[in-house]
Amino acid sequence: xxxxxxxxxxxxxxxxxxxxxxxxxxxxxxxxxxxxxxxxxxxxxxxxxxxxxxxxxxxxxxxxxxxxxxxxxxxxxxxxxxxxxxxxxxxxxxxxxxxxxxxxxxxxxxxxxxxxxxxxxxxxxxxxxxxxxxxxxxxxxxxxxxxxxxxxxxxxxxxxxxxxxxxxxxxxxxxxxxxxxxxxxxxxxxxxxxxxxxxxx
Length: 201
What we know:
By secondary structure, the chain is α+β, with helices and mostly antiparallel strands. 32% of the residues lie in helices and 12% in strands. The protein contains 5 helices and 3 strands; from the N terminus they run H-E-H-E-E-H-H-H. The chain has a 3-stranded antiparallel β-sheet with strand order 1-3-2. The longest helix has 18 residues. The model has no long low-confidence stretch (mean pLDDT 82).
């Protein structure tokens, strides 16, 4: 599946290039309004209830030949059909607000790579987890640091969470956390811990 945040002419050009290289199972390319709620549901069926999931992510500055080689080699492996690597261009409107003016981590030019392994049984999850880790480890030499899309990080990856936001933004959000969640109630996901009293002044 491809999704491009561009004008129709650019979308047509991009789709034509894909058709030259790959024979898709089905082919339907059409414009969709940015605010269309259906966009949020495109992957619902592929992420159905009762599926077990394991994911890792990273940021890349560019998709050069070595990166594409790694992706294509792993795409032809033994992973389950619903397991996937999503390549997300971080451009266009995403770049309209400069990085330090947002609470979002990683809003800069480049690409976000989210690798997702899905399984129906614990045994199958072991296989998909190995596939995700193998692809992630193969891509990390090309990554722009250890940060990633924070929703893909585990609770214990505090160093990667800090790297994802950057030091100044992380410290600013930690000071805000003192005001709105001093007891760190919201801590089940990758969270920003409240700053120490001295740091929050």
